[in-house]
Each structure stands twice: as structure tokens, then as C-alpha cells.
């Protein structure tokens, strides 16, 4: 069913902004005009219906659901001036925690986080850049099953993101090379972004494809310890020399980040279609809460066995002088991986256990700990986190700065921490990074379809990032590539940082 009525209140918004400007507004000042409300029942609705059976809503009704794939609601709003605006949503998530996709004028996109509640309430879901005049703000089903009452827009405050970050590592015994890397990362934070690319296979097809198209290698390579998981090795998997490849990459002047798609220690499905995906909650019966509650259980002893197996590889890297941007237990709060399936409590215990086992038991001092839990409730504490990572898979060819994802990560702790785009599908336009002053530390574009049409191919695909944007990114003055890393990072000499680019003043 489609409700074709549209209400924009353009005159009201224009007057509200005019009054604000006449009362002393100047560009760059912290100003927030009174919000202008757009009722859901007056928006364009596709694949959902307007209802009025719940109590406490505004206007004459609300959107019921976003229950069907592809369903959406689109608000037409008018901005008197171009700029960054705050979005507040009136909603009820009585069916549980939800995430829904917000798209602005068909390009900027992010997921609105809607916590479970029992009645309609208002929440700021993000800030967006609007053009002067008419703008389209669409909310599309991602998880679905949420009631939407209204959308309010108002001028957003300046972001004022801190970029002066201490270079102190959580491990006081960190190796000199590891400390030097952290010092370097803090020195360029907000001045440059490091280019990064995940390599799906040790053939480096994504890396070579990027080089063939741009003449540049990424500064950071992303690798995975998945195949070193003991239960995966037991299935006949032969680890693909990721450790040796990491050493080679470092020796050629590049930085290394590792994640670990950890095949569950026990309980993985034996079904041929699932057994290689034993890191997914749906493909294993492994129960982390049992392991954390009973240290004599098989769940716990095999957990320790697996951590110790990965420690062997990390020790090889330490012996070779390679510091690692270490990102284990990623995307936990989503619940799709077994380490997040039993809630925040067991996960945080596991994070602390892993830190203690690798650092204090195995003496691994070459790790910079990148926490990537994706929710404040899952944050293990400042003393266990060096860097915060956020994974964002934007809509195809959405090159916006992903400011909302950054601000979400910024709110996980009040302690200044470097924040990085630890996984992405689409590259960000570096001009937008500079304009919005969003200081992602590095990006890590995922492999396969985000770069090449299929795993193992050396052809480039423009499905997610156009070739023009790829070339722009890898040759932009704000983006550092492998050849632009200071040679002193890889020697015993003091680190020399590059001269930062001049950030243009937004107009």
C-alpha cells in the first residue's frame, strides 16, 4: 500500500532558520534551530501501512512495520540553507532492538540504531548533509518490524572531534616497533588516512588489482588467522602462509592488521555446506557462556587451545619485528558470530581472557589491540583497548564520510582513542573526509566482490566503488599509500611523519 500524500513544511523551516540567523548565527558557530517535524502518515510509504491502534503517537497515525523486504518510508524535507542537520526519529521498537537503513538523496547512507522500547519515544539517529531546498530522506527495511511516528530535522552542532590522542599503549611492555607504530598513528590522526585492503587469499589478487589500476599499494594489508583455527585444521584445512606473507609485507614497507574468523573450538556443524563457516552462530552449537562459567569444561579447554595456537603465529611475527594491528572477536554485538551469541557479559570476559593469555602468559608485546565490538554495552574498558574499530558497509557507490558511524564509535568511551574504519565495502571520497573533518585512521576494504568480481580474479569491479573513485582515493594527497610511509617506521631510527595536507575550510 502506498500513501502518496506529502507534507514538507518548507515555510516553517525557512522561518525557523531565518529567526536563528538574524539572532546572531554565523557559519561555524554552534547553532541548533528548533526542529521541524514531518509526520510519517504524510510521507511517501511503500510496502507498509499507516496505523493508529497504538497509543502515544504524534499526528493522526504512524507507519506500522517495515515488515517486508524492500519496504520503506520517504520524507520530503526542505532546508533553507545547505549544511549538516540532525535527524530525530519518533519510533517504537516494541519487537526488540532494530537497525534500519537511512538514505539521503539517494547517496549518503547509514543504519539507524533503534533500541527496544515499549512506547513511542524520540531519538537522535544521526546527522546528515542536506542541500538547500528539497531533500529526500528514506528509511528502508533492514531488520524491519518497527513503528515510525515522525522525523524531525534541525541544524546540527559542530562535531568538534578530538584528534590529539595520547600514544600510550595498554601494554606497558610493548616492543619499540609497536610503540613507534602507535606514535606514528597518533601523529597523523586527523591529518591523513592510511589506505587499507583485505586480501582474501595469499595470492593478493585484490592488492595487485589495485596496483594495476592505480600504480599504488595500500599502506595497510588486512589478513585473517581463520585457517589456523585448530578445529579448521582438523577438517583438513592447510593454512595459507598468512604469517609469512605478513612478514614479507612488513619487510616491503607496509603495515599489517589481522582479524580472526575463529572456527568454533567444538560444536561446528559437520554439514558440508556449513562446516567451513563454523565461526557463524548458526553453524555451531558452541556455548561461550559455558566456557566462561566452567574453566574445567571442554568448551573452556578447547578455547585456550585455540588461543595458544594463534599465539604461535603472533610469536613468529614478534620474532620478525612485525607489530600487528590486532582485531580479534570483531562485530560481536551483531550476534552472528559465536563469540557474540551469548551476550555482552561472556564476550567481555573472553576479550579480557585473550588479552591476558596473549600478553601475560605468552609474552606477546607486538600487538596494538583494536576493539571492534560495535556497541557501547560490549566495550571491555579503556585498559583493554588501544584503538576502536567500526565496520561499515555503505550502499553501493556511497562515498560519504560515514560521519554517523564515526560518531557512534566516538561515544563508546569518553577517553580519547583513535577510531578506524576497520572494515568497509565502499571507499570514502577523501574530499568529503576533509570537508567533514572525520579522522578515520585507516580503512580496510573487504576483499572479493568489493574489489574483484569473484575471489581469485585480477579484474576490477565497479559495483561498489567506481574506477574513477578508486584512482582518486589512491592518488589523493590526504590518503597515504605504502610508498608514502616513513622508512623510519621499519628501522631503529626515530619515526619521521609526513607533512600534513592543508584542510580546506568548509563553505
From TrEMBL:
Listed A to Z, the keywords are: Glycosidase, Hydrolase, Signal
PROSITE patterns attached to this UniProt entry: CBM6 (PS51175), GH26 (PS51764)
Span of domain GH26:
176-483
The answer to whether UniProt assigns keyword Signal to this entry is yes
Active-site positions on this chain: 331 (proton donor), 423 (nucleophile)
Q: Which ranges carry the CBM6 domain? A: 36-154
Q: A Gene Ontology MF term for this entry?
A: carbohydrate binding
Organism superkingdom:
Bacteria
What Gene Ontology biological process does one annotation of this record name? substituted mannan metabolic process
The record's InterPro entries line, in alphabetical order, gives: CBM6, Galactose-bd-like_sf, GH, GH26_dom, Glyco_hydro_26
Q: Where is the signal peptide?
A: 1-28
Regarding protein family, the annotation reads:
Belongs to the glycosyl hydrolase 26 family.
Q: Which PANTHER family match?
A: GH26 DOMAIN-CONTAINING PROTEIN-RELATED (PTHR40079:SF4), MANNAN ENDO-1,4-BETA-MANNOSIDASE E-RELATED (PTHR40079)
The protein, known as: Mannan endo-1,4-beta-mannosidase
Amino acid at each position: 500500500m502506498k500513501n502518496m500524500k506529502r507534507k514538507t513544511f518548507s515555510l516553517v523551516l525557512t522561518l525557523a532558520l531565518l529567526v536563528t540567523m538574524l539572532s546572531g548565527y554565523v557559519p561555524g558557530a554552534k547553532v541548533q534551530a528548533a526542529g521541524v517535524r514531518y509526520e510519517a502518515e504524510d510521507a511517501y510509504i511503500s510496502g507498509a501501512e499507516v496505523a493508529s491502534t497504538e497509543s502515544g503517537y504524534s499526528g493522526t497515525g504512524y507507519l506500522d512495520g517495515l515488515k517486508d523486504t524492500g519496504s520503506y518510508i520517504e520524507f520530503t524535507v526542505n532546508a533553507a540553507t545547505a549544511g549538516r542537520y540532525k535527524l530525530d526519529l519518533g519510533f517504537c521498537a516494541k519487537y526488540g532492538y532494530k537497525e534500519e537503513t537511512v538514505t539521503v538523496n539517494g547517496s549518503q547512507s547509514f543504519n539507524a540504531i533503534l533500541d527496544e522500547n515499549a512506547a513511542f519515544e524520540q531519538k537522535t539517529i544521526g546527522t546528515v548533509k542536506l542541500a538547500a531546498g528539497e531533500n529526500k530522506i528514506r528509511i528502508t527495511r533492514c531488520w524491519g518490524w518497527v513503528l515510525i511516528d515522525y522525523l524531525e530535522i534541525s541544524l546540527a552542532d559542530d562535531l568538534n572531534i578530538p584528534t590529539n590522542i595520547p600514544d600510550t599503549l595498554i601494554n606497558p611492555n610493548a616492543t619499540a616497533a609497536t610503540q613507534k607504530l602507535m606514535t606514528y598513528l597518533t601523529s597523523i590522526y586527523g591529518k591523513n588516512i592510511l589506505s587499507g585492503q583485505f586480501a582474501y587469499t595469499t595470492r593478493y589478487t585484490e592488492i595487485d588489482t589495485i596496483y594495476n589500476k592505480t600504480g599504488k599499494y595500500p599502506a595497510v594489508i588486512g589478513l585473517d588467522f581463520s585457517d589456523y583455527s585448530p578445529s579448521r585444521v582438523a577438517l583438513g584445512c592447510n593454512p595459507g602462509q598468512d604469517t609469512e606473507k605478513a612478514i614479507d609485507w612488513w619487510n616491503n614497507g607496509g603495515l599489517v592488521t589481522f582479524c580472526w574468523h575463529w572456527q568454533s573450538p567444538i560444536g561446528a556443524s559437520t554439514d558440508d555446506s556449513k562446516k567451513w563457516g563454523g565461526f557463524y552462530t548458526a553453524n555451531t552449537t558452541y556455548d561461550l557462556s559455558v566456557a566462561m562459567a566452567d574453566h574445567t569444561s571442554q568448551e573452556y579447554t578447547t578455547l585456550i587451545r585455540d588461543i595458544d595456537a594463534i599465539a604461535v603465529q603472533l610469536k613468529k611475527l614478534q620474532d620478525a619485528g612485525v607489530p600487528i594491528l590486532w582485531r580479534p572477536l570483531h562485530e560481536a554485538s551483531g550476534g552472528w558470530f559465536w563469540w557474540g551469541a551469548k551476550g555482552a557479559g561472556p564476550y567481555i570476559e573472553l576479550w579480557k581472557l585473550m588479552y591476558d593469555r596473549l600478553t601475560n602468559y605468552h609474552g606477546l608485546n607486538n600487538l596494538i589491540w583494536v576493539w571492534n565490538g560495535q556497541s557501547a554495552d560490549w566495550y571491555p574498558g579503556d585498559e583493554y583497548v588501544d584503538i576502536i574499530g567500526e565496520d561499515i558497509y555503505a550502499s553501493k557507490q556511497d562515498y560519504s564520510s560515514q560521519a554517523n558511524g564515526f560518531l557512534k564509535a566516538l561515544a563508546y568511551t569518553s577517553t580519547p582513542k583513535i577510531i578506524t574504519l576497520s572494515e568497509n565495502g565502499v571507499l570514502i571520497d577523501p574530499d568529503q573526509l576533509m570537508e567533514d573533518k572525520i579522522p578515520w585512521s585507516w580503512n580496510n576494504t573487504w576483499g572479493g566482490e568489493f574489489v574483484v568480481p569473484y575471489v581469485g580474479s585480477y579484474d576490477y569491479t565497479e559495483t561498489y566503488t567506481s574506477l574513477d573513485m578508486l584512482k582518486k582515493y589512491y592518488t589523493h594527497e590526504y590518503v597515504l599509500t605504502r610508498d608514502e610511509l616513513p622508512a623510519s617506521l621499519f628501522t631503529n631510527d626515530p619515526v619521521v611523519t609526513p607533512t600534513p595536507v592543508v584542510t580546506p575550510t568548509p563553505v
